[in-house]
Amino acid sequence: MDECQSANQYARELLAWYDKHHRPLPWRQNINIYHTWVCEVMSQQTTLAVVIPKFSEFVKQLPTVYDLATCDEDTLRQLWSGLGYYARARNLKKGAVFIVEHLKGRFPQSYNEWLKIPGCGLYTAAVIASICFHEKVACVDGNVTRVVSRLLALSKDVWSSSGQAVIRDFANSIISAERPGDFNQAMMELGATVCRKTKPLCLLCPLRSQCLAFEKNCTELCPPQKPRRDAVDVELFALIVWRKPTDTIALAERTKGFLANTVGFPLMSKLEVLEVKTALKSREQLQLVELPGAFTHNITHHRISGKALVVRVVEDSNNAAVEDFWQILGLPQPFYWIANQAIATKLSTSLDKKVVKLFHNTLSCYAQ
Ligand code: SF4
């Protein structure tokens, strides 16, 4: 069998399997560029079980690229909550604004054009171009990397950029010319459901007869583990400024550090807490309460042990004391007041939600 026939055999067998076994996902019903774009960005690093309901709600609330381009930050945050990695939502919106402002709302029509959209990388461009425009361009994510590295029995360096280029070249060499979009989805689906990280279901695999790792009995070695950075332990304090008479809480968009570009409580180190205490010494209207209890949270390579501090504003005569305090500490600006009862609905990160839970669970300790 020549090389070309063999490549076709990969595609043929994979697509025959996909036609029988693919999962009926909402965005696969009718191909729509906007839906494909949104769902692919949502699916990166998030499981389909979480994505499916969020996707349906997202496209219901923001049915067009114009709606996405003009939606306010609050709405976007709410629609994205639970999906994590909020930077992806911001990039999606940036892309929508670009399409509306520079392309008059017309979607790019090819892989290379999609690569020019802010926030759109190789993977997203390949998915959209292959599914929506039948362009023969392979997409490479973690699932595809795993499948290809097993087909070729690659047990070394597949995660570096040169390793990823090898994976991409191979995927491009076997992609179906007739059904490139289905081929890409089939590769990802095979990786997710059959060629699993551990205990791949090789006996159910349509590519078994061409898989070198299966033949050599080394599937567990391919691909090699991603090089891991050790997690670092971090102590972090969340600052809850609570205007007791009106039962409102100050929130702001964090501009740097952990969870930058998300709205929530100011986060600070132990050293910065000392600055808070110093700043409060001369401000009688503001009282500091250190909440009992703690929370833990993991953010990319950081193991956070967190505590919360409440600055209780006892008089409501004016906002000046809080504004002054906020400014002196260099806390993120602007801040705004949210009713305590509604606070959970305004937060998008799970860390902030843990802080609120701690606050509400211990409210009786300091409400007098
Ligand atoms: Fe993966 Fe096994 Fe199929 Fe090889 S035979 S591609 S290891 S599921």
Automatic annotation (TrEMBL):
Keywords: DNA damage, DNA repair, Glycosidase, Hydrolase, Iron, Iron-sulfur, Metal-binding. One of its GO terms (biological process) is mismatch repair. Residues 42-193 form the HhH-GPD domain. The keyword Iron applies. It comes from Tolypothrix bouteillei VB521301. Its cofactor is [4Fe-4S] cluster. Pfam families: HhH-GPD (PF00730). Belongs to the Nth/MutY family. InterPro entries: DNA_glycosylase (IPR011257), Endonuclease3_FeS-loop_motif (IPR003651), Endouclease-III_FeS-bd_BS (IPR004035), HhH-GPD_domain (IPR003265), HhH_base_excis_C (IPR023170), MIG/MutY (IPR044298). GO terms for molecular function: 4 iron, 4 sulfur cluster binding; 8-oxo-7,8-dihydroguanine DNA N-glycosylase activity; adenine/guanine mispair binding; metal ion binding; oxidized purine DNA binding; purine-specific mismatch base pair DNA N-glycosylase activity. This is A/G-specific adenine glycosylase.
